[in-house]
């Protein structure tokens, strides 16, 4: 009884020191988030407002996105629509080609990961440089992100130091984080100055103003867009918010939930092209409108990618981002993967004890754990249910549906207590790998009740 | 007031003394308790594994057994939560209106919210650490969830405060999961065992002799690791403490 996730998790946990460090580091972020959220007395009200705003926006997409397009165009931006990853990549490639772009800088965008932009452009001979420090480290290591907000959280500074020695000529053996950050900064500075175009994602798109809003801590998005004549911004349709008042609700929640900061260092609004430059905005669907039609899972579209559900998830913290088969890990990744392609990403559904911490930590009230429960119910339909679990459930049902059988089993159960260890603890028994079995009582409650051993004299009928 | 005592399958088989303790405590508080015979399982293990259909007959049987009582009370927060929150949905497909779901209480919740005793005849001169179990906290609201910005409360602590000689504490990571989750514990055994080890460490770090809670299932899971590793802490269901003198 295992899945790709459970096997990968087992491997991750073999390095106990590293695994414990990963667990504790992310728990620290959760603890910072708790502290920050408690400093806002109206926190729970904000969560409810944010949830309602998202539900409103996602059911009024046609009018809000059209309003956005009209306002963005009036500001001087060019708006493109992409129905899927292929169109998204195609539009970007056409823009880069028509503007003779050879050096392209990007700030962090999970949408570009989703649509496979970097490998697509690399195949076309365009040099893409990720400018978010975590993303840059991973790009140089040829690794994908392991967390949506802290993509390189699983990499230790010694590894970064050795990487920078090789790629950026850093001092040998100097693993001081401040030093390493300065090395990266110097290296990136030259790349920014020589870039031909810059790309950003969007945390929010404001319908009433046509603004693209990007939240970063490094200012790398602003460096890129300020140094180059061509800015391409792309966002998924669910990033739309009605107006600046609504935006304020989300910016109060985002950083507090994600990293435990009151707000990100930079909250940049991009409205119009630079003087003499061009500003292109791509609005992307890529399966989102399909999710809108599924009432069980529509709230997944509320997600603002803060990563709080990963930081709180006891399974994510102990299995790491790479143990999941979808590019977004953790509770939201399980759900997004299933919404995207259930047959392909069914292995992640095991990575949940249904503790529901994610549903309670989520700033936009995505019912993450409850949705995972619902996805599990759908596995049988798509032929992805685990046969051992199916037999076990059917066996339990047969036993529990018939009290006579159940009572007979209760009588026989104490025999298990006396079974020799090699029969109880072997490879067939995953429970026994790290735990002893409970001992069955000599007499069940049912049996004791029938023999009037529980009821006091006055209770006996 | 007639109470139907709900004894979940694994308590029936492994921890019948928890059922006995529950019965005695309710009786000592003047409650008229009945135990409908031939109870089996609420269906949660199958449903959590993705086979809600296998729980359908069990849910119907459960409702037939318990609908006639004023209250249904059980010493297992997770099973109670499953009945309260999931049985109505499971049965609605069959046109069966589930009545027991609206009457079911975890026994701590029932004593705390309905019976509201201001004293208990119980003495337990030991230090205990409260295991705030996931479904007890986040589905039955037995204590304030650590994720939420709401004032602190803990119904288990309130009840334990009525016990003479006891010292009560709560662990770091106050309501983090112990890693049971039904078949999750075998399907994801490595993660599940690691979660239990961490959870026990947090409990033990309080200096408590006992881990206590409203869910024998979590306690059973942690006890499995404690036995395997010979750890110096024990588990005990809260009903055993509250009924210690009965």
Our count of domains of chain A comes out at 3
Shape of chain A: globular
Question: Percent range for helical residues of chain B?
Answer: 40-55%
| Total strands of chain B | 8
Mean pLDDT figure of chain B: 96
CATH fold call of the largest domain in chain A: Rossmann fold
Rg of chain B (C-alpha, Å)? 17 Å
Task: Give the overall form of chain B.
Answer: globular
What strand order characterises the main sheet of chain A? Answer: 1-10-7-4-2-3
What is the annotated CATH architecture of the largest domain in chain A?
A: 3-Layer(aba) Sandwich
- Number of helical stretches of at least 4 residues of chain A: 24
Kindly provide the name of the CATH class of the largest domain in chain A. Alpha Beta
The appropriate CATH architecture of the largest domain in chain B is 3-Layer(aba) Sandwich
Which spans of chain B of ≥5 residues are poorly predicted at pLDDT below 50? none
Strand content of chain A: 5-15%
**CATH topology-level name of the largest domain in chain B:** Rossmann fold
User: Average pLDDT of chain A, to the nearest integer?
Assistant: 94
Q: Quick one: CATH class of the largest domain in chain B? A: Alpha Beta
Number of strands of chain A: 10
Structural class of chain A, by secondary structure, is alpha/beta
Largest sheet of chain B: 4 strands, parallel
């Amino acid at each position: 009884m295992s899945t790709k996730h459970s096997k990968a998790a087992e491997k991750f946990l073999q390095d106990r020191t590293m695994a414990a460090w990963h667990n504790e580091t992310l728990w620290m972020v959760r603890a910072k988030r708790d502290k920050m959220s408690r400093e806002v007395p109206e926190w729970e009200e904000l969560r409810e407002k944010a949830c309602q705003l998202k539900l409103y926006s996602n059911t009024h997409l046609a009018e809000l996105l059209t309003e956005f397009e009209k306002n963005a165009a009036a500001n001087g931006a060019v708006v493109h629509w992409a129905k899927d990853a292929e169109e998204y990549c195609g539009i970007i490639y056409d823009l880069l080609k028509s503007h003779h772009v050879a050096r392209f800088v990007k700030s962090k965008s999970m949408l570009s990961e989703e649509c496979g932009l970097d490998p697509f452009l690399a195949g076309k001979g365009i040099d893409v440089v990720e400018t978010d420090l975590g993303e840059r480290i991973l790009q140089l290591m040829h690794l994908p992100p392991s967390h949506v907000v802290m993509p390189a959280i699983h990499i230790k500074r010694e590894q970064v130091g050795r990487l920078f020695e090789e790629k950026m000529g850093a001092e040998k053996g100097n693993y001081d984080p401040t030093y390493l950050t300065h090395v990266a900064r110097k290296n990136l500075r030259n790349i920014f100055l020589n870039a031909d175009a810059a790309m950003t994602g969007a945390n929010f798109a404001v319908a009433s103003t046509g603004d693209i809003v990007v939240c970063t801590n490094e200012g790398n998005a602003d460096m890129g867009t300020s140094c180059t004549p061509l800015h391409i911004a792309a966002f998924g349709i669910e990033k739309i918010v009605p107006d600046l008042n609504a935006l304020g609700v989300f910016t109060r929640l985002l950083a507090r939930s994600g990293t435990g900061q009151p707000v990100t260092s930079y909250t940049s609004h991009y409205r119009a092209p630079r003087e003499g430059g061009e500003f292109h905005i791509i609005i992307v669907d890529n399966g989102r409108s399909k999710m809108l039609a599924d009432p069980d899972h529509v709230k997944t579209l509320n997600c603002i990618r803060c990563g709080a559900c990963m930081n709180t998830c006891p399974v994510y913290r102990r299995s790491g981002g790479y143990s999941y088969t979808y590019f977004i890990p953790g509770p939201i990744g399980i759900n997004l993967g299933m919404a995207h392609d259930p047959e392909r990403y069914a292995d992640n559904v095991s990575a949940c004890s249904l503790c529901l911490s994610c549903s309670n930590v989520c700033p936009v009230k995505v019912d993450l754990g409850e949705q995972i429960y619902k996805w599990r119910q759908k596995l049988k339909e798509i032929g992805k249910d685990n046969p051992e679990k199916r037999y076990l459930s059917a066996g339990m049902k047969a036993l529990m549906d018939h009290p006579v059988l159940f009572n007979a089993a209760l009588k026989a159960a104490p025999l298990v207590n006396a079974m020799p260890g090699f029969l109880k603890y072997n490879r067939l028994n995953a429970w026994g790998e790290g735990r002893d079995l409970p001992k069955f009582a000599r007499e069940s409650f049912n049996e004791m009740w029938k023999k009037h051993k529980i009821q006091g004299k006055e209770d006996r009928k | 007031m007639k109470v139907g005592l709900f004894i979940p399958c694994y308590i029936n088989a492994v921890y019948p003394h928890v059922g006995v303790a529950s019965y005695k405590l309710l009786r000592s508080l003047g409650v008229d308790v009945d135990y409908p015979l031939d109870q089996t399982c609420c269906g949660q293990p199958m449903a959590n594994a993705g086979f809600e259909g296998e729980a359908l007959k069990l849910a119907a049987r459960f409702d037939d057994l318990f609908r006639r009582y004023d209250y249904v009370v059980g010493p297992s927060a997770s099973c109670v939560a499953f009945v309260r929150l999931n049985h109505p949905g499971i049965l609605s497909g069959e046109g069966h209106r589930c009545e027991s779901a609206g009457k079911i209480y975890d026994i701590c919740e029932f004593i705390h919210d309905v019976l509201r005793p201001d004293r208990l005849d119980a003495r337990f001169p030991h230090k205990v650490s409260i295991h705030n179990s996931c479904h007890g906290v986040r589905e039955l609201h037995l204590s304030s969830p650590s994720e939420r910005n709401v004032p602190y409360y803990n119904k288990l602590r309130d009840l334990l405060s009525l016990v003479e000689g006891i010292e009560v504490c709560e662990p770091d990571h106050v309501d983090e999961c112990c890693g049971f989750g039904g078949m999750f514990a075998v399907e994801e055994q490595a993660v599940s065992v690691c979660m239990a080890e961490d959870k026990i460490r947090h409990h033990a770090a309080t200096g408590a002799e006992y881990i206590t809670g409203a869910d024998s299932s979590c306690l059973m899971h942690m006890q499995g690791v404690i036995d395997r590793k010979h750890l110096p802490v024990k588990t005990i269901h809260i009903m055993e403490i509250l009924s210690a003198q009965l």
